[in-house]
Amino acid sequence: MESAFKLYLENGLTDVTLSKLKKEANITSGGFYHYFASKDELMDETMQLFIFRYYHLVLDGISDCEGSHKELLKTVAFSMMGHGEHSKKATILSDGTKIDYKDLHVLLMEGVKKYGTIHERYEKLLVKLLNVIYNILDDGKARGTIRQDIENSKISLFIQSVITGTINSWIVIDDVDLEEKMDYAMDCIWDYIKN
Fold first, then answer.
1. Contact by Cβ (8 Å): 78, 34
2. DNA-binding residues per UniProt (predicted)?
3. Does residue 137 contact residue 152 with C-beta atoms inside 8 Å?
4. How many CB atoms are closer than 10 A to CB 83?
5. The whole model's pTM is what?
6. How confident is the model at residue 92, as a pLDDT?
């Protein structure tokens, strides 16, 4: 599946033929169909393994992180863009190939737009991201570091939108410094919600 993932990163999801997949993986048609019912099944499982699994591991790991609520929110943001402690596990494939996160996000957006199963997985990921942010805010309110008068659901949605929007602007605009822009955005949000 790693061979397929590299092909998808290089060519996109729709431009990778079954012939190209079999050649890259050095597998026969019989071997391919032994493991996968179709090219779409391989694509779906590959996206699950190399993209969605990573993001779910990152979000699951946030509860184990230490630091202030501001630091936790930044950890969420930076992890979603492929930076930070949890991201290092997924930045290199087994053959040493380093993943370009811009290509990864473009691939993800292509899948979200063109394939229902990937769209559904992405929606679930966004819900999970929203819940992680909500829980950080809730804990911050309970500990007195975040204002009591903010609505967690609205601010969580706003923070999620800032994270995904900042990543999307980085994909489209070449000279965007993603780290600087995300750090600034999260600082602005923190200044608004801190107690």
1. no
2. 17-36
3. yes
4. 18
5. 0.88
6. 57
Residues with Cβ within 8 Å of 170's Cβ and at least 6 positions away in sequence, in order, are 81, 102, 176, 178, 181
Site of tokens 């391989």: 42
Q: Which domains does the chain have, with CATH numbers?
A: 47-193 (1.10.357.10)
Contact of 4 with 42, CB cutoff 8 Å: yes
pLDDT one-digit tens code per residue, 117-168:
999 999 999 999 999 999 999 999 999 999 999 999 999 999 999 999 999 9
Say how far apart CA 141 and CA 194 lie, in whole Å: 9
Q: Which residues pair with 98 in a beta bridge?
A: 92
Name 146's bridge partners.
194
In sequence order, which residues have a C-beta less than 8 Å from that of residue 176 and are 6 or more positions away?
169, 170
- Exposed (0-12), middle (13-18) or buried (19+): which is 152, by Cβ within 10 Å? middle
Q: Per-residue DSSP letters for 105-162?
A: HHHHHHHHHH-HHHHHHHHHHHHHHHHHHHHHHHHHHHHTSB-TTS-HHHHHHHHHHH
CA distance 163 to 33: 39
153: closest CA among 129, 134, 178, 176?
Answer: 134
